[in-house]
């Protein structure tokens, strides 16, 4: 397994692989890898001859008051996880390698980004789409793997790839959870023990919604009340959003009759966590 | 020479070429080809094993009051020019092949687009960058050829390719002119005989500016006055802009000391024509 910092080197290595007819799977990450990322790398390893993992905390997808500076980083630990999971190459560029001083080109998906995290984090998806386009152009993978935990991100990337004819297949992989249900996230490391216990309220509230849906409840408002009620019972939790949307268009719905995405974002102390599930009738 | 209308077919053909190790040159056009386009195709033919020419009048780069509907089209004539100039494949998609009804992803270059045509045609370069990105993703060429007549377009495309790491080399080719000096343009067909004679005032005004520069004039204002004076002497001409800018940043300059671009846009009757030259000290 190699670690490469600059664009021209990573291109050379991948071009050589492609000349030999080897398929390339790609897992873009912001590092501080957990079992969720490992599952993406393993999936890529199963379906491709070579696997590239990028580790880049992308400054342009963070808002001015967000956690760019304190976002956790640990390349040594990450390298071990990539190697164990079957990765062949880590691309770990510096911000200046990715963004020259006069950088001024951006990629934007105008639909799908109005609600959910898009509404709460203005400019976030423009930053995500721009960096993912750049990474796709550098790595030129056959397939790229994204976690379903960032459900809106996955939908936006799929739309961008379709609209702009980017020659890559996007593959979504299921959320990986701790034993007690908390969705794995690099940001879980911010939680102290009290907050870690409180964070369980996210997955618990979604479990309750799932039960109600299985029992036949079809009113978005009632499902939303169930989730809000559970979240509100936790004093350390502050709700950012609870949304019930069509799983393709990501637009709000009143009555549940198709495939829906229930997505939540909740502050536990100062840490913003997200979770979701898709329910098909 | 083949003509292909849909994206998946053109991809298959080009993929097969690339598997055989053949390099691909690409000339994106809006059709109604003239000797300027032919010179691009010839340049592509010299430097690549295969040459793809796209013919697509891109609706999203036209403003609501512009000439989208009456833009001239003649595929039969174009095919002959492509064949004679050394093209191997014409990609001629329909608007619906390129833009699905829910299309919503865009590429934008925020610098370089404020002045010149960008100021006069809001949204134009967003439309150009988006379609060129799509075409690059469909054709995946090694090199792509653009005319220097659209000097701002060439600068914007180069910037986009650099910023977004698009794996293609952009090659600018010199303006091709009629014997009397008028820059070749698909829009010249709009001109009646009186307007055709009047249109000469564009290249004439630039020639006068060139002479003044060669005689040592370094004041942008004075050079601008020379151009404006010549253009104003033609009753059928209505000036859209006359700009003297740095040839890289496209920002206005007062005193000429580096490489500059002098670009003009002039209505002759209802037809908007552009012309330019680059001057290096």
How would you describe this structure to a colleague?
- Chain A has a 6-stranded parallel β-sheet with strand order 1-4-3-2-6-7, with helices on both faces. A 3-stranded antiparallel β-sheet of chain A has the order 8-9-10.
- Chain A has 2 domains: 2-173, Rossmann fold (3-Layer(aba) Sandwich), CATH 3.40.50.620; 186-275, Pantoate-beta-alanine ligase, C-terminal domain (Pantoate--beta-alanine Ligase, Chain: A,domain 2, 2-Layer Sandwich).
- Chain A is globular.
- In chain A, a hairpin with a 2-residue loop joins strand 9 (260-268) and strand 10.
- Chain A has helices at 7-19, 35-47, 75-85, 95-98, 116-120, 124-139, 151-163, 193-198, 200-214, 220-232; strands at residues 2-4, 24-29, 50-55, 89-91, 105-109, 143-147, 169-173, 237-246, 260-268, 271-279.
- The first copy, chain A, has 281 residues and is α/β, with parallel strands linked by helices.
- In chain A, helix 2 packs parallel to helix 3 (75-85), helix 6 (124-139) packs across helix 7 (151-163) and helix 9 runs antiparallel to helix 10.
- Chain A contains 10 helices and 10 strands.
- Strand 5 of chain A pairs antiparallel with strand 5 of chain B, so a sheet runs across the interface.
Set out the fold topology.
Two copies of one chain form a homodimer.
Chain A: E1 2-4, H1 7-19, E2 24-29, H2 35-47, E3 50-55, H3 75-85, E4 89-91, H4 95-98, E5 105-109, H5 116-120, H6 124-139, E6 143-147, H7 151-163, E7 169-173, H8 193-198, H9 200-214, H10 220-232, E8 237-246, E9 260-268, E10 271-279
Parallel strand pairs in A: 1-4, 2-3, 2-6, 3-4, 6-7
Antiparallel strand pairs in A: 8-9, 9-10
Helix pairs in contact in A: 2-3, 6-7, 9-10
């Amino acid at each position: 397994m190699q670690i490469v910092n600059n664009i021209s080197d990573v291109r050379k290595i991948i071009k050589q692989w492609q000349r030999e007819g080897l398929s390339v799977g790609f897992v873009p990450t912001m590092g501080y890898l957990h079992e969720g990322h490992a599952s993406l790398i393993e999936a890529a390893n199963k379906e491709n001859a070579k696997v590239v993992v990028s580790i880049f905390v992308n400054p342009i997808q963070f808002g001015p008051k967000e956690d760019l500076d304190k976002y956790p980083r640990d390349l040594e630990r990450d390298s071990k996880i990539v190697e164990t999971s079957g990765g062949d190459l880590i691309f770990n560029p510096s911000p200046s390698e990715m963004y020259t001083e006069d950088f001024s080109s951006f990629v934007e998906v105008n639909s799908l980004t109005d609600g959910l995290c898009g509404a709460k984090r203005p400019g976030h998806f423009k930053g995500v789409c721009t960096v993912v386009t750049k990474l796709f152009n550098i790595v030129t993978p056959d397939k790229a793997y994204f976690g379903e935990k960032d459900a809106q991100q996955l939908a936006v990337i799929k739309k961008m790839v379709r609209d702009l004819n980017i020659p890559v297949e996007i593959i979504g992989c299921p959320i990986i959870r701790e034993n007690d249900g908390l969705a794995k996230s690099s940001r879980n490391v911010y939680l102290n023990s009290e907050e870690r216990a409180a964070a369980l309220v996210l997955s618990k509230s979604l479990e309750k919604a799932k039960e109600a849906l299985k029992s036949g409840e079809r009113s978005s408002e009632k499902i939303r009340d169930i989730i809000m009620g559970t979240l509100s019972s936790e004093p350390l939790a502050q709700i950012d959003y609870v949304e019930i949307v069509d799983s393709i268009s990501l637009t709000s719905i009143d009555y549940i009759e198709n495939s829906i995405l229930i997505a939540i974002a909740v502050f536990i102390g100062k840490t913003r966590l997200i979770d979701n599930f898709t329910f098909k009738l």
